[in-house]
Amino acid sequence: MSNGNQTYANHRRMHPLFHFVFSLLALVLLILSIIELVRSLQSGNGVLPSFLFLIISIIVIVVFLLIRTYPMKAQDRAIRAEENLRHYVLTQKLLDSRLAIGQIAALRFASDAEFPALSEKAAAEQLSPDAIKKSIKSWRGDDYRI
């Protein structure tokens, strides 16, 4: 699962086409559509096309958000199942039900040696995902999630 080079400092992954190009274009589209609607309202001409342009830009923003949200939810479900199985294999117990998905996602970076104890600590102290990641001594990379 890991190339061994991933650490807290470099574990975040960005997809440039999505995170920079698509997000920037969607934002520019929204801003231009608002400007065009204001101009058409002031002049009294072409209000309907400008309004439709704004609706289309809002649809693009919604699609942009859904394109990111739906796969993340599916990945979260898979991570929860994987880490629950890993915890069960290591301890013969399921993960503590107090752990939120963000905590479980952070725990996936912990090595098998520290995973059970860190899981208990995270549940007992309600550690944030970032605090969990910073607590990891032996990092186990996840090269599949964006």
TrEMBL record:
The keyword Membrane belongs to this UniProt entry's keyword annotation: yes
InterPro entries referenced in this protein's UniProt entry, alphabetically: DUF6526
Keywords: Membrane, Transmembrane, Transmembrane helix
Residues that span the membrane, as ranges: 17-35, 47-67
Highest rank taxon of the organism: Bacteria
Protein name according to UniProt: ABC transporter permease
The organism of origin for this protein: Paenibacillus aceris
